[in-house]
UniProtKB/TrEMBL annotation:
Pfam families: Fer4_11 (PF13247), Fer4_2 (PF12797)
Protein name: 4Fe-4S dicluster domain-containing protein
Record-linked InterPro entries: 4Fe4S_Fe-S-bd, 4Fe4S_Fe_S_CS, ET_IronSulfur_Cluster-Binding
Organism superkingdom: Bacteria
Organism: Streptomyces caledonius
Keywords per UniProt: 4Fe-4S, Electron transport, Iron, Iron-sulfur, Metal-binding, Repeat, Transport
Lineage of the species this protein comes from: Bacteria, Bacillati, Actinomycetota, Actinomycetes, Kitasatosporales
Length: 218
């Protein structure tokens, strides 16, 4: 985890989209927001979650690792930059490699775009735009010590498990205290495969399981 970084606190997000609007004002991608504001249970709950680039560092960000044009550079302080406009070929390898679903591809410009931690601001000690405007502190910029001084007892995680693969990140997430000692499960549960509702398949599987679209349902 970086010294000064973003801490995401899902329990504080109210879905106001102030971070989305502020992100559009960044000079490096003016008019386009690099934040995903996800509603985890649309139609059932107002729960929301801001998703920014996690600036992976284990051992190098997956998006940078798979880029065939070396367009995604990582700074000495661990910030994974968005694609260099002079090198990006719009292949979307980075989109497929990112376990958090962060990079976006501008198909017309053939260019990858993503959060770069407002490097034009953070390199000079200023907070990213999103954290500056967040009214509830769901996006907090600073050190772990500063976060814990403001929110005593808070626990954070910077390791996430995707199946058998563990990814360490430069950005951390506030988690329940009893979960911080294990890698936080990454991704979302599979609910549909080839048009088949897997929740229904699991509830009706019986004793032996079956195959759906070439996938074993156990």
């Amino acid at each position: 985890m970086m010294g000064r970084t973003i801490f995401i606190d899902p329990g504080r997000c109210i879905g106001c989209q102030a971070c989305v609007s502020a992100c559009r004002e960044c000079d490096s991608h003016r008019g386009k927001s690099m934040i995903h504001l996800d509603y985890t249970e649309p139609g059932m709950s107002v729960a929301s979650l801001p998703t920014v680039c996690m600036h992976c560092e284990d051992p190098v960000a997956p998006c940078a690792e798979v880029c065939p044009a070396d367009a995604i550079l990582v700074t000495a302080d661990g910030v994974v930059q968005q694609a260099d406009t002079t090198r990006c070929i719009g292949c979307a390898n980075c989109v497929n490699a990112c376990p958090f679903g962060v990079p976006k591809i501008d198909l017309q410009a053939k260019l990858q775009m993503k959060c770069n931690l407002c490097y034009d601001r953070t390199a000079y000690g200023l907070a990213p735009m999103c954290a500056t405007v967040c009214p509830t502190g769901a996006l907090f910029y600073g050190t772990l010590e500063e976060l814990q001084a403001e929110r005593p007892g808070v626990q954070v995680a910077d390791s996430f498990a995707f199946g058998d693969v563990m990814v360490s990140t430069g950005v951390a997430m506030v988690v329940p205290a009893d979960k911080v000692q294990w890698p936080v499960p990454g991704g979302l549960p599979v609910v549909e495969i080839n048009g088949v509702d897997m929740r229904e398949a699991h509830s009706n599987k019986g004793g032996g399981g079956r195959r759906v679209g070439g996938v074993d349902v156990r």
